[in-house]
Amino acid sequence: MSADSCGGKVALRNLVNSINCIRDRVRDGESNESDGAFNLSNFWDTLNQAVKAVSQEATKLSLAFSKPPLPSQQDGEKLADSIMKSILTLSTVYYWLPKSQGLALRRLVRDATVDVLEGVAQLVEVIMSSPLESLSQEQLMSTGGVWSACDQFPQLSKDNKAAVVVVLSCEIRVVKDAIEEIEQALAEGEDPFNDVLDDDQDGDEPRGNQDTYWSENDRQVIGACQGLIKAAAACLRKLTSAVKSNGDFSTPQNVSQLDDLADISKEISPGVDDLALCLYPPMDYNGVETNVCKLAALLKKILEIIRSSHVCGESELTWVQFLDGAIDHNLQKAKDLIQQES
């Protein structure tokens, strides 16, 4: 017997659509800005209570439909109404968080809220399609998914400074991975595609396609590009430390500066990836030069924003100036080596 064949589950059909509509509004909607004072601590207390209520209602729903006899149509409607009220409360509390508290913070809370809404919608859909006879493994996993989505809220950054640190930390990991991949490819020998292409070879004859090998000049160009990418990683690490030490979210101007730093920092990893892709043989020298220049320009722009922001004190100026010089050095080195080859 399918879920839809029981009267108690009829009420769940519209519930899924309603949750999905709320999810879309949360994902794309604007906050309710107000001129009055906003208490961030009270917001978190209320939000955590709302999330806890959603988790409890989702658990009730899952248990009610876990074994026969399933709820009657009337009981199913009560369950659906109850979980819908908790969903509406959660979305309403989310909308309380104004942009003035920081875009980085708001995005973290938005994404976490969307995760909860999607988890509940998935659970309801699983219940609707589950057999009557037993609690399915899929339903157990979906219930656990809602719990997991709700459990992340206590660990979320509580202010824009902490939220920006999360953004920067994610960028550091991505850039670090790119550095390690390049170093690993260089360490594996002359042919970085050896393990990928060997399976396609017929017989025991070695490949004669030199386009899969790095020349000595290629490796020197890679060295200059590595220097630039490492400068990007150092910039992110130093900026993270500066935000932790000096970051302030007590004024609109400082909150906006933190958001600007987070937004432009998120452009680093795509720039690093674009450059890294050009380095594999056959090396595209035009592409390398284009992406080296783009990444260098981006890094210098970031340093300029850092220099003019409140997170930059006298001690930070030292590494800002050092990295500025390192970027110029590696950029010029890469250009010179590319021109030698052309």
Low-confidence stretches: 1-5, 203-208
Number of continuous helical runs: 12
- Proper CATH architecture of the largest domain: Up-down Bundle
Derived from helix and strand composition plus strand pairing, the structural class reads mainly alpha
Radius of gyration: 27 Å
Helix content: over 70%
Strand fraction band?
under 5%
Report the mean per-residue pLDDT as an integer. Answer: 89
What's the CATH superfamily of the largest domain, by name?
I/LWEQ domain
- Report the principal-axis shape: elongated
The H-and-E topology, N to C, reads as: HHHHHHHHHHHH
Largest β-sheet summary: none
Description:
This protein has helices at 10-28, 40-64, 73-96, 103-129, 137-151, 160-187, 194-197, 216-246, 252-265, 268-278, 285-307, 314-341. With 342 residues, the chain is mostly helical. The chain has two domains: 3-155, Up-down Bundle (A middle domain of Talin 1), CATH 1.20.1420.10; 160-191 and 211-341, Up-down Bundle (I/LWEQ domain), CATH 1.20.1410.10. The protein is elongated. Residues 1-5 and 203-208 have low confidence and may be disordered.
